[in-house]
Design brief:
With about 400 residues, the protein is of the alpha/beta class. The chain has 2 domains: about 170 residues, 3-Layer(aba) Sandwich (Rossmann fold); about 190 residues, CoaB-like (Rossmann fold, 3-Layer(aba) Sandwich), CATH 3.40.50. The protein is built from 13 helices and 19 strands. The structure holds cytidine-5'-triphosphate.
């Protein structure tokens, strides 16, 4: 991130995690950013202006009605290339989502056109509340980069999702924001997510553990970069992303059908869904009795990626594979055999990939050396894959 010489506004909300933002401010300065801190008045209960002034080397104000002659909120907004809000409380996000301008920080946000990274931190109950969820969805649909908080122990002694993320994770996200451009404007991106289910009878199915997190992260990232995104979601419990057309399917056949009608108008197809390789030969009309539930004959499902690759014109296709890192060659062969242009080898040697917030593996692209992806967020991987797809689209 060195050398951008960019101006950052660090907005600080009124939560206990405000003290952790002191470290973030120092690291941003280490990376060569000039940082002006704009705390909300209530955040001064946690960290006072003197601390922010000492750490930033700049004067701190929280009031719109100070230095009125320079129209402070507008001048601050104009000067800032990036805004980072850390921590963002539930109340602060609600005010931003509602377009309020009742303190200097929210005035600056409204007056700014720069990329904004929001780092929420709050009690898990508040993070999971429907109102907060709706506000986060609204903010994301408007192009704000809202991080997911970490999961773990909180100041209150409770455990759950709501912790202020580690500084390194925030910086990683921030560097993505710094590099974000509307480079997918006018492009159509089709993403599959989740895992298909193949019915056995009206109550049972063959399914898999895929949460859909990676596919949703790709859809969201593509949307943030200006793409027109359609998401084909199979049995994921994740909330819809505002502004993204989402078609819900259950089985591999339904997924193929949905994709076939969308594919010709698509520029980039991302097959991140876990598709069942086989389905029951027959689906029983009524629930199979215990005594008859002893074996199921299976029949192979169509390979969706391969089928679509054979219909391709200009489209770039990204596939996924779950392998251990030793299987790079197998993955290369899989990419070619299926007709994918890019393949992400999800390195499952460490265990937990399903439902995880992070991932590690290799990005394979035709004619290139495998690119190692060290432990990173699914959002960051999403951007890396989209970067590669754009390169190939030319
Ligand atoms: N895929 C597909 N249609 C299928 C099965 C898989 O389109 N019937 C896609 C997936 O969406 C993914 C890639 O192909 O992009 C995964 O291929 P697969 O051969 O299933 O790889 P693995 O999951 O690694 O499984 P295995 O090595 O066991 O075959």
């Amino acid at each position: 991130m060195q050398g951008f010489g960019r101006e950052v506004i660090l907005g600080v909300g009124g939560g206990i995690a405000a003290y952790k933002s002191c470290e973030l401010l120092r690291r941003l300065r280490d990376h060569g950013f000039g940082v002006t801190v704009v705390p909300t008045p209530s955040s001064l209960n946690f960290v006072g202006s003197a601390t922010w002034e000492a750490l930033s080397g700049r004067k701190v104000t929280t009031e719109v009605f100070e230095s009125v002659e320079e129209v402070r909120h507008v001048s601050l907004a104009k000067k800032a290339n990036f805004i980072v809000i850390a921590p963002a409380t539930a109340d602060l996000m609600a005010r931003i989502a509602a377009g309020r301008a009742d303190d200097l920080l929210t005035n600056v946000i409204l007056a700014s056109n720069s990329p904004i990274l929001i780092v929420p931190a709050m009690h898990p109950e508040m993070w999971n509340d429907a109102a907060t969820k709706a506000n986060v969805a609204t903010l994301r649909s408007r192009g704000y980069h809202v991080m997911d908080p970490d999961t773990g122990a909180l100041t209150s002694g409770d455990v759950g999702q709501g912790r202020f993320p580690e500084t390194s994770r925030i910086l990683e996200e921030f560097s993505t924001v710094v590099g974000t451009r509307a480079d997918l404007l006018g492009k159509k991106v089709l993403v599959t997510a989740g895992g298909t289910r193949e019915a056995i009878d009206p109550v049972r199915f063959i399914g898999n553990q895929s949460s859909g997190k990676q596919g949703y992260a790709i859809a969201r990232s593509a949307q943030q970069r200006g793409a027109n995104v359609t998401l084909i979601s199979a049995n994921s419990s994740l909330a819809d992303i505002e502004g993204i057309r989402t078609l819900k399917v259950e089985s591999a056949h339904q997924m193929l059908e949905a994709l076939e009608s969308e594919f010709s108008q698509t520029d980039i197809l991302v097959m991140s869904a876990a598709v069942a390789d086989a389905r029951p030969l027959q689906v029983a009309d009524s629930k199979i009795k215990k005594s008859d539930y002893t074996n199921i004959s299976l029949v192979e499902n169509p390979d969706i990626l391969k089928t679509l690759a054979s219909l391709r014109k200009h489209q770039i296709i990204i596939g996924f594979a779950a392998e251990t890192s030793e299987n790079l060659e197998i993955a290369q062969e899989k990419m070619v055999a299926k007709g994918a242009d890019i393949l992400y080898l999800n390195d499952i040697s460490g265990g937990d990939i399903f439902n995880s917030e992070t991932t590690h593996g290799y990005i394979l692209a035709r004619g290139k050396e495998p690119q190692k992806v060290a432990q990173t967020t699914k959002d960051t991987l999403a951007h890396q894959l989209l970067d590669e797809a754009l390169l190939q689209l030319g």
